[in-house]
Automatic annotation (TrEMBL), chain A:
It comes from Thauera propionica. This is Nucleotidyltransferase. Keywords: CBS domain, Transferase. The keyword Endoplasmic reticulum does not apply. Coiled coil: none annotated. The keyword Transmembrane helix does not apply. SUPFAM superfamilies: cAMP-binding domain-like, CBS-domain pair. The lineage of its organism: Bacteria, Pseudomonadati, Pseudomonadota, Betaproteobacteria, Rhodocyclales. Residues 174-231, 239-296 form the CBS domain.
TrEMBL record, chain B:
This is DNA polymerase III subunit epsilon. GO terms for molecular function: exonuclease activity; nucleic acid binding. Residues 45-192 form the Exonuclease domain. One of its GO terms (biological process) is DNA metabolic process. SMART domains: EXOIII (SM00479).
Length: 632, 215
């Protein structure tokens, strides 16, 4: 009887698919294969179906009803379209799932949409069994490659232009026509225009377009609101007269100097006749400085030995300190550090590979803990391991010995570059952590089956793994397996939850904060870790592949029915704690102190103290949710 | 009263002893653990139940066919479905339905009719009084999507509002497939409105019914 029902529904799917290419041309058994396996899911308007951050796609989607938009993400566009709409019968992703890599597009439901989906494995099987489908996919990818070649050329010319960096003439940095008013314009009209055009700086010009003054957003509070300025009076009475200006031929460097000297955030750019050409902001200049990141990166990638890398690692540190001083946000900062440390580690591995012949051995270099989460701070010791696959018909032990010798070399190289050896010996050179995929599975499996305290502690370090070098597919397979095993084991998740709840946020009943004996708060133990631990559990429970805390929270919240605002507040809280940690480490390294994660709340200014308190409240909220979910 | 009596009489008249197999299935079903109604949608398997009857008169008409479509973790899979005509073998059709549904929370469209018909058939043929959680989309949909239709409406109206089609209307599984798709949309909207679990949906339905009674 069940068979009859399934046949009816499969028949309905078949009839639907037959209306569209390539399914209408497909071999009957291949079409039946799709229709039998395709399951239906709903995606409300505005929701992400697949993004780059979700990692290697687990599903192949066919739109059944509604509209899905594909948007380019990332720095360089791969295709000529910026966005593309997909309607009923159209499928995605094709390139990413064929190549088993994260999608470069974000797929968002722009209407309430229903999509059929099959798993990535079923997709690959379908490619094998159906020549028609195979041809459809390869032609699609070929057309993408063609587009991307053209795109690459434009990107190269763009990059060549960017290389001029701080010597770029200001004229080239102007992004839009300046918004100007005359000095007799009523202030209200000028402010309304600022608001409508979303600009931070209004230029006041005379009849010949010579700038005579500026009004910026930061002037509004003291001069307008607090001063009770009458908005009907002309803007000429309110503006800052004789604004700072530079010629369009002056360089970005000149502008940075001018801004730093006079403490202003905007500069007016004028032509040879002194007429306004545009406004350059501090932010425009900052985007230029990112190229120096690229230069450090090039330094890493070309380093010939560990000595050269040592210098690069000092550069990374210095850059991080500069960026902290400039007030950059914690999320970007940790991403910078993580990206550069990754590049550094990869180079150390490449250098070691020149001395160790590992050709033909399928392996991946894994990072655990904060490195695995892309959340390194300035004082992070090594947490790494190796995952490998033993070729059939070969003895495992000799290969393992070669991998261990290689790993010890890498561990020593990393130590030389300023990543201290791990005190707990969580390093790839440790034979216990140089395991095959099957061995990792059985290691993880034993922790899940017997969640004793030590196993839970291990899970909190090792489950945040990612593959940093080598065959990423091994890591993906381990992740997919782990998510599947844990999902069906709510007893284990409950134990993890109990463990995560052992430390409460240091909020006091009477005083703002509960401090330790020395008057400080440990921002790692009773701050960041509270967020990290809950995010890990939510990710395991909802099957999120990402290992980063912010991504885990964002992706899991969609399934948990937490609103975007709520999750944004939680993530902001996490990032603020991380920022304070980085700042504390920054101060200590300047004074040559031991870098740890302590902060004395009394040393913070009023604003930071309040934000810290709010951040801990967010952590408490997150914990409370866990408590309710697992009735702990 | 008349109705109750006639049912009692027919049921005792037609009730032959259940076969060994049917009793075993019933015992297996009874031994299943109750569904955890506090779990999130993405961890819950719901079952959309639908019936096909000889007419719309609760007193006179009978169930002709039944269907079940699983909605497991926000996914409808064709393999997780059931359809059977009662015909000559109502016992096997209904025990099959029990096997397909398990003790999952049930989703129907218009429980006043479907639930009543089905419960009566289960009692008549299997002697079963099952205590399920029933969630009625007839009330849930206008509660969640007032911008589409602001009062309880017919299935056809909701299908056209969402552009949902099915392979055969007024067929227990044909309509069940459409109801399952409506329920997918309802789950997503319910998440945004903090009805996160089967119990949350049941509470939403209850408060909407109370609200309808007042207006």
């Amino acid at each position: 009887m069940t068979a009859i029902a399934a046949d009816l529904l499969v028949g309905a799917s078949t009839d639907f698919l037959r209306n569209f290419s390539p399914f209408n041309r497909m071999e009957p058994e291949a079409l039946a294969f799709v229709a039998e396996r395709a399951v239906l899911a709903f995606h409300p308007r505005g929701s992400d179906i697949l993004t780059t951050e979700m990692g290697v796609p687990r599903h192949f989607y066919i739109v059944q009803r509604g509209k899905v938009q594909a948007r380019q993400t990332g720095a360089t566009a791969v295709t000529e379209y910026a966005s593309l709409s997909l309607g009923p019968g159209e499928c995605f992703p094709i390139g990413a799932i064929s190549a088993q890599r994260p999608s470069t597009n974000a797929y968002v439901a722009v209407e309430d949409s229903f999509c059929f989906q099959i798993t990535d494995e079923e997709f690959l099987q379908l490619m094998q069994m159906s020549p028609v489908f195979h041809l459809f996919c390869t032609q699609y990818i070929a057309s993408l490659l063609n587009q991307s070649r053209q795109q690459l050329q434009t990107t190269f010319s763009q990059r060549a232009a960017e290389q001029q960096t701080m010597t770029t003439p200001l004229g080239q940095l102007i992004k839009r026509e300046p918004v100007c008013v005359g000095p007799y314009t009523p202030t209200r009209a000028a402010l309304e225009q600022m608001n409508a055009e979303h600009i931070g700086c209004m230029v006041v010009v005379d009849d010949e377009k010579h700038p005579v003054g500026v009004l910026t957003q930061s002037d509004l509070l003291p001069r307008v609101i607090l001063a009770g300025f009458d908005l009907e009076r002309p803007i000429g009475e309110l503006m800052t007269a004789n604004p700072h200006q530079l010629a369009a031929t002056a360089s970005a460097y000149d502008a940075a100097l001018e801004m730093a000297t006079h403490g202003v955030r905007h500069l007016l750019v004028v032509d040879a006749e002194g007429r306004i050409k545009g406004v350059v902001s501090e932010r425009d200049l900052f985007s230029l400085q990112r190229i120096s990141l690229r230069q450090i990166r090039a330094g890493i990638e070309n380093a010939a030995d560990v000595g050269a890398l040592k210098r690069a690692s000092k550069d990374i540190r210095q850059l991080a300190l500069n960026l902290i001083a400039q007030g950059i946000g914690a999320e970007q900062l940790t991403q910078f550090i993580s990206a550069l440390n990754d590049a550094l580690t990869r180079r150390v591995i490449q250098l070691a590979l020149e001395r160790h012949d590992l050709v033909g051995i399928d392996f991946g270099w894994m990072s655990f803990g904060s490195e695995g989460r892309h959340e390194q701070t300035l004082s992070t010791d090594q947490d790494n391991g190796i995952i490998w696959r033993c070729p059939e018909m070969e003895a495992a032990e000799p290969i393992r010995q070669r991998l261990i010798a290689f790993a010890r070399d890498v561990n020593a190289g990393l130590a030389g570059c300023g990543f201290p050896l791990c005190k707990g010996n969580i390093m790839a050179g440790n034979p216990e952590l140089c395991l095959t995929l099957d061995e990792w599975r059985s290691r993880f499996g034993s922790w899940i089956r017997e969640p004793v305290p030590e196993a839970l502690l291990n899970a909190s370090i090792f489950f945040d793994f990612r593959v940093l070098y080598g065959n990423e597919r091994l890591g993906d397979q381990l992740r997919a397996w782990l998510n599947k095993i844990v999902k069906g084991n709510s007893a284990f998740l409950r134990m993890m939850a109990g463990n995560a709840l052992q430390v409460a946020p240091p909020l006091g009943r009477l005083r703002d904060f509960v401090v330790e004996d020395d008057g400080t708060i440990d921002l790692k133990k009773s701050g960041a870790r509270l967020f990290v631990d809950v995010a890990r559990i939510l990710a395991l429970r909802t099957g999120v592949d990402s290992s980063s805390t912010a991504q885990r929270l964002r992706q899991a919240s969609v399934k948990m029915g937490v609103t975007a605002d709520e999750v944004a507040a939680i993530i902001d809280g996490f990032h603020f704690v991380q920022l304070l940690r980085l700042r504390a480490q920054h101060l200590e390294s300047e004074h040559d102190g031991q870098t740890d994660n302590r902060v004395d709340p009394d040393s913070l200014n009023e604003l930071d103290r309040r934000i810290l308190k709010e951040s801990f409240r967010q952590a408490r909220k997150l914990q409370l949710r866990l408590k309710l979910d697992y009735q702990l | 009263m008349n109705n109750w009596l006639s049912r009692l009489l027919t049921s005792s008249a037609s009730s032959e002893p259940l076969s060994e197999q049917a009793r075993r299935t019933l015992a297996q079903w009874a031994a299943l653990p109750d569904a955890d109604l506090g779990r999130a949608h993405f961890e819950t398997r719901y079952v959309v139940i639908n019936t096909e009857a000889s007419g719309l008169d609760l007193d006179k008409d009978r169930v002709l066919a039944v269907s079940a479509v699983g909605v497991d973790g926000g996914i409808v899979a064709p393999q997780d479905s059931y359809y059977a005509v009662l015909g000559e073998q109502p016992v096997s059709a209904l025990t099959g339905l029990l096997q397909a549904a398990g003790k999952a929370p049930l989703v129907v469209f218009n429980s006043a009719f479907n639930r009543t018909m089905l419960e009566r058939a289960l009692e008549e043929h299997l002697g079963l009084n099952a205590d399920w959680l029933w969630i009625d989309l007839y009330f849930i949909l206008p509660a969640l999507f007032p911008e589409r239709i602001e009062r309880p409406a017919r299935l056809a109206d909701w299908m056209s509002s969402f552009g949902i089609e099915t392979f055969q209307r007024h067929h227990a599984l044909g309509d069940g497939w459409a109801i399952a798709q409506l329920f997918l949309a309802a789950q997503a909207r319910a998440l945004a409105q903090s009805a996160l679990s089967p119990r949350g949906l049941a509470e939403l339905e209850r408060s909407y019914r109370q609200y309808r009674r007042k207006v």
